[in-house]
Design brief:
With 787 residues, the protein is mainly β. It is built from nine helices and 51 strands. The strands form 16 sheets. A four-stranded mixed β-sheet has the order 1-7-6-3. It is rod-shaped, with a radius of gyration of 61 Å. The two termini are 73 Å apart. The N terminus and C terminus are likely disordered. Bound molecules: 2-acetamido-2-deoxy-beta-D-glucopyranose (NAG) (3 copies). The site of one 2-acetamido-2-deoxy-beta-D-glucopyranose (NAG) has 5 residues, from strand 42. One 2-acetamido-2-deoxy-beta-D-glucopyranose binds next to strand 30. Pfam families: Cadherin (PF00028), Cadherin_2 (PF08266), Cadherin_C_2 (PF16492).
Length: 787
């Protein structure tokens, strides 16, 4: 483990080294000045060993300093460096013997910088020229043979071989030319007197001096020298220094005194009056400085900018009254002032940035330039805001903009990154640049439902198209990545596909029934999916509960409903108050409240004799039977459910107070008029059997009473098993999860059994119905006494 970390450390270090040193070898080329645009300078692809497609994929390009012209560019198709603008060596480098243009070749991802130096070769495109067309010399006739007269040099902007190589003097009788080199290195000619002058013979001599350069073809310039022969002798002025040097801060105001040159002349009077004038100098310098012809003072006459030119050279000529002259060189060096703020240039930017880029990803490239020099040019670059970006110094004055943290478009969509660059001059200058960076969406959020699960309660017998509920999911992503579409997941309800039960609106999430439900509880799964690629989804459960409607009238199972009943219960004469006589059994097809049944006696022969238990339907004597009671008792019982509105049914019951079956024939009177003899015999059989069972029942009751102390509940005590045909078709717990809502309502079908009637149902009594019967919800909510 430790070893591994060490390895990683080394790798990281190697990476750092690589990152910091990816300035590659220099490229150098040479090209003649004044080449046509598009001329090929060299093949960069070959020299760097890069394939052409890589060259263009990495956006190879030439970068120059701010404000500098781009003289060449990369032809990405052929990998060549070509001339893109006219290059004039003299404009670039003046008289410097060697002229090199420097720029950078930039390749991105990873950033790679190559220094390119382009040597500009001189061509002989400038002819030598003299400062004036005519040089006037005044020479005394007494001048001795060998006297020397300096002639100002011609100037050729070209260098080397193309610069002035020689002078020739037109053949004449008096002068020859002698070539001299000044201490500053320039060549000039001297006229040397070979044969004495005679004013009386010739007062004016005209000579032609030609300067020649060494180029091919050779170029030349000429000047006319007018020599006037004078009577007296004369001395030329002499400068106190061969070269004057001065330093001047840039931005010096106009008329600032720079330097004073001075020359003295040994002569007196007019011959000793020295005047100064600027002779050979570039046009640029001519606009920058002025010279006081009388005093030799040089002043600032233009806008001095170090960044334009840091050095000016000029020649000052001193002349006496007779026109004898000499010259001296003045060199003015300009010193830098921190007058340029750094300039921040955004060289490239990934826009927009996908939100899933890992921290440390390079997203932009920034170049900072300061036109000042040295300390004034050193720039620090940083970001002060709290943004997940930072600048990493790269090669030279390049910085990489990298992410420092994860980006989240759902959190921040745009960043305005303010970059500050300040130089180290005094006072320092700084500048700001704001880069707008936007974050692009990636499908990184799945739709999330508002609720963990949804439930819907639907009354039974609903119409198809009924809206059950609507589900809603949110996805914070952008556009299609955040567009939620709802759909039902395939599944089955009671063997049929869910789609035959429900439909969901893909856009709104509204769930509608497709048909009328008879299934009391089912679950479906709804999926919310976004439209991204790949799409993301989440699922939710929708539980549908069908709620009961009170549409079933209680159904009386025992005795048979009113009008058709010939059932008669036998009541022993000795029955005491509170004895169980019979029981009305009824069921209701509904569930819940709608199936809670209550029993009431609405009509009876002797209202004080029998009572019925409101909930169990058990009919008991209210008091002891006395002899005076009518033997034949008739009661009408109404069974009502608890629905809104409630539904009810009624039945009649005949009770015969008798111990003796011999009294049975009197039953005939109790029966309805329409009873037939055949029916009567059935009735007799029924009565006999009922009575027999009643007696058995009494015995069992007694037995039970006895046993109950030890065995508190007997299966059929308080429980009547209903034949399965009376149960609703789907009574099972669909949920299976124990969710007790409507499921248990079906238990309400069950009412405590009549002891006299238990036998009718015992055959179908089984564990299943018992389980349903013992449902907790039922026990808790239905106030039946299940002793
Ligand atoms: C960024 O700047 C732009 C233009 O100045 C502005 O419209 C935008 O609201 C800014 N964004 C932030 C996140 O500040
Ligand atoms: C959605 O996300 C994908 C990547 O998951 C991305 O390519 C696409 O541009 C995003 N769409 C929009 C509209 O932002
Ligand atoms: C949603 O259910 C479908 C089908 O069962 C499944 O393919 C998908 O992965 C589930 N999606 C989620 C987020 O659980």
């Amino acid at each position: 483990m430790e070893h591994l970390m060490e390895n990683q450390g080394i790798l990281f270090f190697v990476f750092l080294l690589y990152a910091l040193h990816y300035v590659h070898g220099d490229l150098s080329y040479s090209v003649q000045e004044e080449m046509k645009r598009g001329s090929v300078i060299g093949n960069i692809a070959k020299d760097l060993g890069l394939r052409l497609d890589i060259l263009s994929a990495r956006k190879a390009r030439i970068e120059t300093e701010e404000n500098q012209r781009r003289y060449c560019e990369v032809n990405l198709k052929r990998g060549e460096l070509i001339v893109s603008e006219r290059i004039d060596r003299e404009e670039q480098c003046g008289e410097k013997p060697s002229c090199v243009l420097k720029f950078e070749l930039l390749l991105e991802s990873p950033l790679e910088l190559h220094r390119v130096s382009l040597q500009i070769q001189d061509i002989n495109d400038n002819a030598p020229s003299f400062p004036t067309d005519i040089i006037k010399l005044e020479i005394s006739e007494s001048a001795a043979k060998g006297a020397r007269y300096r002639v100002n040099a011609a100037h050729d902007s070209d260098v080397g071989q193309n610069a002035i190589q020689s002078y020739t003097l037109q053949r004449n009788n008096h002068f020859i030319l002698n070539l001299q080199t000044t201490s500053a290195g320039s060549k000039y000619g001297e006229l040397v007197l070979e044969k004495e002058l005679d004013r009386e013979e010739q007062q004016q001599i005209r000579l032609l001096l030609t300067a020649l350069d060494g180029g091919t073809p050779q170029r030349s310039g000429t000047v006319v020298i007018d020599v006037t022969v004078l009577d007296a002798n004369d001395n030329a002025p002499v400068f106190s220094q061969a070269v004057y040097e001065a330093r001047l801060p840039e931005n010096s105001p106009l008329k600032t005194h720079v330097i004073t040159v001075s020359a003295t002349d040994a002569d007196e009077g007019v011959n000793g009056d020295v005047t100064y004038e600027l002779s050979r100098m570039s046009d640029k310098s001519r606009n920058m400085f002025s010279l006081d012809g009388q005093t030799g003072e040089i002043f600032v006459a233009g806008n001095i900018d170090f960044e334009e030119d840091s050095k000016y050279e000029m020649f000052v000529e001193a002349k006496d009254g007779y026109g004898l002259s000499s010259d001296s060189k003045v060199i003015i060096s300009i010193t830098d002032i921190n007058d340029n703020a750094p300039v921040i240039v955004l060289k490239s930017l990934t826009a927009p940035i996908p939100e899933n880029v890992p921290p440390g990803t390079e997203v932009g490239l920034i170049n900072v330039q300061d036109r000042d020099s040295e300390k004034n040019k050193q720039v620090r670059c940083y970001i002060q805001q709290m943004v997940p970006f930072k600048l990493i110094p790269s090669i030279k004055n390049y910085y990489s903009l990298v992410t420092t943290d994860k980006l989240d478009r759902e959190d921040v969509t745009d960043y305005n990154i303010t970059i500050t660059a300040s130089d180290t001059g005094s006072p320092p200058l700084s500048s700001l640049k704001t880069i707008q960076v936007s974050v692009a969406d990636v499908n990184d959020n799945q739709p999330v439902f508002e609720e963990q699960s949804y439930s819907s309660y639907v009354p039974e017998n609903n119409k198809p198209g009924h809206s059950l509920c609507s589900v809603k999911a949110h996805d914070p992503d952008w556009r299609q990545n955040g567009t939620v579409i709802y759909s039902l997941l395939p599944g089955e309800v009671n063997g049929a596909p869910v789609s035959s039960y429900l439909s969901v609106n893909g856009d709104t999430g509204v769930i509608q029934s497709v048909r009328s439900f008879d299934y009391e509880h089912f679950k479906v799964y709804v999926m919310a999916r976004d439209n991204g690629s790949p799409p993301l989804s989440s699922n939710v459960t929708v539980s549908v509960f069908i709620t009961d409607v009170n549409d079933n009238t209680p159904q009386i199972l025992y005795p048979a409903p009113e009008g058709n009943s010939f059932m008669t219960e036998l009541v022993p004469k000795a029955a005491q108050g509170g004895s169980l006589v019979s029981k009305v059994i009824a069921v209701d097809g509904d569930s819940g409240q709608n199936a809670w049944l209550s029993y009431q006696i609405i009509k009876s022969t002797d209202p004080g004799l029998f009572k019925i238990d409101l909930h169990s339907g058990e009919i008991r004597t209210q008091r002891d039977i006395s002899d005076s009671d009518n033997m034949k008792q008739n009661i009408v019982v109404s069974v009502k459910d608890n629905g809104q509105p409630s539904l009810s049914a009624t039945c009649s019951m005949f009770l015969l107070i008798s111990d003796n079956l011999a009294e049975v024939p009197e039953l005939k009177d109790m029966a309805y008029e329409d009873s037939s003899s055949k029916l009567t015999s059935y009735l007799i059989i029924a009565l006999v059997s009922v009575s027999t069972f009643f007696l058995t029942f009494i015995i069992i009751i007694l037995g039970l009473r006895f046993c109950r102390r030890r065995k508190p509940r007997l299966l059929f005590d308080g429980a009547v098993a209903i034949p399965s045909s009376y149960l609703p078709p789907n009574y099972a717990d669909v949920d299976g999860t124990g969710t007790l809502r409507s499921t248990c309502n079906y238990d309400a079908y069950l009412t405590t059994g009549s002891r006299t009637s238990d036998f009718k149902f015992l055959t179908s009594y089984n564990d299943n119905t018992l389980a349903v019967y013992h449902c907790n919800a039922f026990v808790n909510t239905i106030p039946f006494n299940l002793n």
